[in-house]
Amino acid sequence: MFRFSLRRMLVVFTVVAVGIASLLRANALLSGIWGLVTNAVILAALLAALLDRGRRRNFAIGFFLIAAIYSVNARLGSAVMLKLFDQPAYALGTAPILDAAFSHLVRVEYSVQGSDEWSSTKPTRRSAGMMGGIFETRTNPESWAFRRIGFDMFTLLFGYAGGMFAVFLYDRRHREVDSAC
Asked: Model-level pTM?
């Protein structure tokens, strides 16, 4: 039987809310923090799979297997596919989802080269010339950081789903054994 406690719901909503806020301001620091936290959670699931018993152990095994497989695929999958087949591949189809979300959230900012002021309006060639040069562009959030944070969020989401499925299988097996006795 699938049970979703209030505590679990609060944890899931908190992770999703922090994740969305991080995606809106994706940068190198946030990407590093998400990567560190995701890897720490995967390591904690491995330790729980080795040390716990019962439902918690099954949740940890399911979480670890799915999260580790997805994480490795998300980080190395496209490079391996490019090397083996000379064409990039997406990690389990989640990259197009992240690319679509990024295209709706991206803000392009402009600055005249050598200036510290950034604006969302593109300077004209005349104003750029009067201010001393060529204008530069940057995106906010940064596309590579957005994708890495998104992959980390999907890793945690898929790991959680894998853990819940493992607990479902564990409960189902124990119900069958109890009813047979």
From this structure: 0.78
